[in-house]
Amino acid sequence: MCYDFKSLGEKEEIIKRKISFKKQHQDKVPGIESIMIPRPIFDDTSHKGTDKLKDKVAIITGGDSGIGRAVAVLFAKEGCDIVIVYLNETEDALETKKCVEKYGRKCLLIQGDLKDEKFSKFIVNNTIEALGKINILVNNCGVQYVKNSIFDISAKQLKNTFETNIFSFFYLTKEVLPFLNKNDCIINTSSINAFRGNKKLIDYSATKGAITAFTKSLAKSLVNKKIRVNEVAPGPIWTPLIPASFSEDDVEVFGTDTPLKRPAMPCEVAPAYLYLACDDSSYVTGQTIHVNGGTII
Fold first, then answer.
1. Which of 22, 183, 274, 289 is the one with CA 20 to 30 A from 51?
2. Where are the alpha helices (DSSP H) in 81-142?
3. Regarding the domain delimited by 49-291, which CATH topology (the fold level of the hierarchy) does it fall under?
4. DSSP H stretches of helix in the chain
5. Which residues are catalytic?
6. What angle do CA 268, 274, 280 make, to 5 degrees?
7. 240-266 residue pLDDT tens
8. Angle 106-112-113 (CA atoms, 0-180°, nearest 5)?
9. Residue ranges of the chain with per-residue pLDDT less than 50
10. Diameter of the chain by CA atoms?
11. CB–CB of 215/282 below 8 Å?
């Protein structure tokens, strides 16, 4: 079942009140959305599409759940066909596919490990074969592991975090770029932690800082081709990565340290991606949109 806002009134009520979560923890990163309590709200049904992305094709990594799922569904409402790349969360991916198809768009699921450089070529080849083109790349996959000290970060973890969070962006971007044309775009997911740091997420924060530098540098590299490159830097968003990363006690108070005193649901950050993907942002490249509950960066 696609879980969404049943009405505009429900959306307003959820946004107004302090969202609280039961103590919960998942043992495997990046986590499973279907077992979260409450379920993340990824579809604002009060939003009616206006064909901002009519007949375009978007590849979204980590599109099975969380922010990626919300972006996939919103893009579909705006007329976009979707390619979802995911690691192993098949149940979540199938639910997202169902929700995309509910809005009349095609959805291709591709499972695999983005740490493998060759997998990116497989993604692009299958996308072109199935859908004929690529207009939008959303580099969104990521992992994080909470550690109290840099001494607790093993070489294995460090390698996994960097290969997942930033190497994969390079690999897939290189394969996608030959198929992008004027007015197409790339959108990367950074983080508030790229700008303010996080003492318990040192390696994760470092990768997000790398993504921000990658975004700005790539934007300069592609500006003459009229291909725009931007990023979104979310603050605390209620996604599977949260209960999969943090302790039960941390989950219970997640996001309450923001000026707005709550975390966001994925549907509240997805519109930033839509803005960067459509022609509304035709004069925007190399920039960051901060969706973080009022934290001043």
1. 289
2. 90-102, 117-131
3. Rossmann fold (3.40.50)
4. 8-16, 66-77, 90-102, 117-131, 155-162, 168-176, 193-196, 202-222, 241-245, 248-252, 270-277
5. 204
6. 125
7. 888 888 888 888 889 999 999 999 999
8. 135
9. 1-9, 16-18
10. 51
11. no
